Amino acid sequence: MINHIQDRVMLNNGIEMPGFGLGVYKVEDGETVINAVKLALEHGYRSIDTASFYNNEAGVGKGIKESGVPRKDIFVTSKVWNDQQGYDSTLQACEETLKKLDMDYLDLYLIHWPVKGLYKETWRAMEKLYKDGKVRAIGVSNFHIHHLQNLLNDCEVTPVINQVEYHPHLTQVNLKTFCEEHKIALEAWSPLKRGTLLSETTLKHIGEKYGKTVAQVILRWDIQNNVITIPKSVHEHRIKENADVFNFSLTEEEMQEINSLNRDERAGTNPDSFD
User: Fold this and answer.
1) How do residues 107-150 score in pLDDT, each as one tens digit?
2) In the predicted model, what is the mean pLDDT of residues 180-184?
3) Among 25, 45, 54, 166, the one annotated catalytic
4) 105 lies in which domain range?
């Protein structure tokens, strides 16, 4: 388990990734994302998660450059979007991402969604990018167990990570177990269920006990479940607050209480019906 914002977890290919980072989904390119990245890095974050679909890779790259933190100390993730999938177009998409970020390599490159009939070809391209040193690790996002099984049947490189919607209303127990068995790290997007969990009474009560917000309780629950997490914010006080989760621990009983809030309920799309 990670005990500090810069603590890293070992991925299955030997690369180490911070267990806590900043997500920038829906953060506007330009000054907004540049500032969010700079603030996060200033407050100790060392992992930034973007995607070609977010249309803010250029700003993320600028924010990293302007932060003064050496590139080698920052773990940068991006993702190949659905209309870029396929073998040649994935190779091209990665080049475009690197150009926008103004970087020589990515730390982690993910398939954003399992596009039916394409994601295995896309994975072959990811394996090439990995072998060519363009990316230090490759993984997937929004993959169900059956997608992972299909990929694992004949891939040469096992994904290091599966980034999925994960929060107390969607605990993904079977998927988490499957990933653990195959040494695939689980990473949470939308850990706060797009803000809708903030009024959950159980979480409020637990937070009151520790003098913590509901968001902090959820992020702490992620950490204690060994799930990598990337909360999103553009506000300095929230960026600081989200990271202030390393000075308290949830009891086993509280962890179970939070687990029992599961409803198998998504804020985003089910990967099986994503168009």
Assistant:
1) 999 999 999 999 999 999 999 999 999 999 999 999 999 999 99
2) 98
3) 54
4) 8-194+225-234
Binding site, annotated residues: 112
* Total domain count, the chain: 1
| Residue 220: count of CB within 10 angstroms of its CB | 25
In a domain, 156, yes or no: yes
C-alpha distances (whole Å) from 98 to each of 9, 23, 102 are 24, 18, 6
Opening angle at CA 54, ends 214 and 197, nearest 5: 15
Cβ pair 176, 221 in contact under 8 A: no
Count CA atoms within 13 Å of residue 183 on its CB side. Answer: 9
Report the binding-site residues for substrate: 112
Active site residue 119: no
Is residue 137 within 8 A of residue 110, CB to CB? The reply is: no
Mean pLDDT value of segment 244-258: 98
Query: Taking the CB of residue 225, how many other CB atoms lie within 10 A of it?
Result: 18
Does residue 275 surpass a pLDDT of 70?
A: no
Tokens of 18: 């911070």
